[in-house]
Please model this.
Amino acid sequence: MFNVVLVEPEIPPNTGNVGRLCLATRSTLHLIGPLGFSLDDRQLRRAGLDYWDEVDVREWSSLDELRRANGSARFFYLTTKTTQPYFEVSFQAKDFLVFGRETKGLPERVLEENRENCITIPMHGTRSLNLATAVAIVLFEAMRQQRG
Model:
């Protein structure tokens, strides 16, 4: 239904949990390298449980490669460096929801080039959320909009 993009993920259990979210929502998981782990990582598979092999996972060498292959698609970039909340976006099926590395977020170049499509999860008292939690928040809002 949607496309979840993890740019250079670093923590295997986060990616495993995001994979389960993608399977539960019939979404595709796109992994942009380099990854901070192997797809055979025990922690990744443990977090993904026995579902990991059912997840529609696609690997890309760069975000630019993914965007070129999906030229007409809509991409939204999650960042703490904007004020536009995710819940003000009208999501459409097949949109791409792009999340950055756990420790650094998305590269500044990506944010600068896509300012109008940068969205955030408003929060107080912390500078960030766990990656899988952030994906769940935005992905399920997108699902809610599509299912009324």
About this structure: The first helix runs from residue 12 to 24. The first strand starts at residue 3 and ends at 7. The chain has one domain: 3-147.
